[in-house]
Amino acid sequence: MEIDNKLKNNFINLMISEDQAIAIYEAELFLNISPKDIFLKILLDEKSHEKELINFIDEMNWNLSSYQILLLKVNRLFGWGIGILMSIIPKRLCFIFHQTGELKAVKDYSKLKSSIDQYNNFESFSSTKIKNILDKIIESEKLHSDTFKDLLAK
User: In sequence order, what are the residues at sequence separation of 6 or more whose Cβ sits closer than 8 angstroms to the Cβ of residue 109?
Assistant: First the structure.
């Protein structure tokens, strides 16, 4: 069961991180930060990533602890705070922070994906299915990072 809890916590922590990223992009869009089209596209992708994680968490019949629920709410507020701060700093610095955050997401998802095989003994767990989902999310996060890298090059 310890491995099950470790896997559960990894997925929930990634979901919480996605929720924070969503709040950051929502705040920036709310404050009309440009490039709006890029932020909106990335926001929609982040919401899709979170939905995939939530679907998997639901499929595994995992429940969030009271602490995780609190952490989710606090990180959502923290994300809005970060988004507001990102809206007042120079765009170049904002893009650097976004690129760094997207690269961290790539690293976190890649780390989870590489550890998936140790969980193969769970009947309800399809490692192939989740690895495919994680591959799509990783590619999306890499594209986000590349987008900010391109914006920095301009």
Answer: 14, 134, 137, 138, 141
Closest by CA to 114, choosing from 138, 142, 141, is 138
Helix (H, G, I), strand (E, B) or coil at 65: coil
With 0-12 CB in 10 A as exposed, 13-18 as middle and 19+ as buried, what is 53?
buried
pLDDT (average), residues 53-78:
93
Contacts of 135 (CB under 8 A, 6+ apart): 113
The pLDDT tens digits for 17-32 are: 999 999 999 999 999 8
Tokens 């926001």 belong to 43
Contact 58, 33 (CB under 8 A): no
Per the CB < 8 A criterion, the answer to whether 152 and 99 are in contact is yes
| Tokens representing residue 6 in the block | 């470790």
> Which token pair is 119?
């969980």
pLDDT per position as a tens digit, 32-48: 888 999 999 999 999 99
Distance CA 88, CA 85 (A): 5
**Spatial distance between the Cα atoms of 136 and 88, rounded to a whole number of angstroms:** 32
